Amino acid sequence: MKKSSLLIYSLLLCLIFSSCRQDENDRRIIIEEAPEPVVLVRTEIQGEVVDEFDNPVAFASVQVGDEWETADAEGKFKFQDAKVNKSGNSILAESDGFFDGVSHSNFAAESSSFLQVTMLQKGEALRVDPSSGEPVINPDGISITIPENTLVDKLGNDYTGEIDAFSKYIDPTGENLGTQIPGALLTKDELGNQEVLSTLGMIALELESPDGEPLNIKEGSDITVKIPIPSELLGRSPEEIPLWYYDLDDEQWYQNGMCIKDGNVYVCNITCCGVYWNCGESRPSLCLSGNVLEESLSPAEYIQVVVEDLTNNFIYWGYADINGFFCGNVPAAVPLQISLIDHCDNVVYTAEVGPFASDTQLEDIILELSIETFLIKITGTALDCNGENIDGHISFRNTGRLDVYPFIDGNIQVNLAMNCTVLSEFEIEVFNHAEQFRSETFTFTEEGDINLDVVDVCEPLDDFISLNFNGTEHWTAPTKWYKETNATSNHYVLEGLNSGGNYKLEFLDYQGIGNYTESIIFSSQNFTQDPNIPSFNILSPNITVGVNFIDDEYIIGTLSGTVTDNMGADVPLTGEFKIRK
């Protein structure tokens, strides 16, 4: 299910009530010397570490409490007997080339929970010369100004010289925002009451010397960051908004000043610590919880839960535990809609609930169906037209789901486990990174081991977005097309995928065949320096898009204009697309 919103929160799913359910833990440990006793429980935790496109981050280091594990080649990890804080614990993932990924959940003793940790690629650093006094702008449109004599090294010594700035924009209207938010958007008011945060713009930011040594902001100094405001949020964005940073040790967000609106950006002065920064507002919250059962009354294990605020288009998401139990902090006193989604993107339940004034446990939700775990293992050898092994990616398309998985030297190995009500027909294609070729389309309807054997990747692309950027050809495939369901306008998105990045063409007011010169956003994201994915400033495009053909299967068109590259130069851009619906 494709979800985007004007303001979004992350649903904190837990396995027991943190404050609104009777304690059933018979293996708890009370640390009496803490100001508020910390209840530790032992539980099983399993999950996966992925990047922005749900591609696995192989061999990432994962921390839960004081324990560390290494994810396998498919990004999967498991803590058999983890000791964690029952009322909420962060799960940290680290890997070279990525910002730290942080997920958050509550836990119950003798149970099992599933979670996903999403890591954002750092991408290419921007080289900053503080002596110039000029800002640098990253491909996502983040402007960073670092004055002279504002940074220190890890020993606290003044640092002078050039600086490498790694930054990433987290779009508050993005389809996958819930997976990218670090931890949970939780804070506390002056009295210590739990509150939830909105987000009108979030970034990840790290500063290093050219030698890779971390740099910090000197006490009493600040750097200026301009964070883009999506066009559909401009009318609802306040002139001033609090700025928050995520504290990894305390596992919550703290306010650090205010940001001022200036056109289509928020201007923020960052004065201290933290990798993740958020422009958002806080509001009172309550604990909403419930149990999800299949028609046989057995628990609906690990089903995804989405809760939407029907007044303000907020969204909360997460997973129920092995017992079908979920709970999370949601805003008080607003009407809500709860939806349950299986791993194949089938919406299996939806209902309106609330408003609620205090912690609430819903009546048991009994589904009129059963959820099964479907296991699919895909293997094979990918060859180019000359019979040589290739590097590339494999796509898996099933109902509303489209995922890509990279492989090298022709060796295809993908393992999937999906909790679905029905495994509908799914398609597999193989793509060559070096040339614009794909394999035939393989169609299957059953789980199990799928041996593609030797796959010839010699077919012309059937759907794609191709670009000529600064005189060089680039492309992505496969593609998808969807409507942003929570947008206030007729907002449609065309997206081209690659295991190293993507292109995204957004129509803020789509009207079918015709030429578009306004309400168009074209962005390019490159997470692994893939040569097929150029990077440029997404706020700069001055482009015209022509939609020339539409039928039940495809949307075909062209685009042309200019973009601003990372050096500040205007560069011509032309392209064409054939998007599969």
Across the major sheet, the strand order is: 9-13-16-22-19-20-21-18-11-10
Distance between the termini: 15 Å
- Average pLDDT number: 84
Globular, elongated, flat, extended or rod-shaped: what is the shape? globular
Radius of gyration: 24 Å
Notes on the structure:
This protein is an all-beta fold and 581 residues long. Among the domains are: 372-460, Immunoglobulin-like; 464-580. 1% of the residues lie in helices and 52% in strands. The strands form 11 sheets. Strands 9-13-16-22-19-20-21-18-11-10 form a 10-stranded antiparallel sheet, with no helix packed on it. A hairpin with a 5-residue loop joins strand 14 and strand 15 (194-197). The protein is globular, with a radius of gyration of 24 Å.
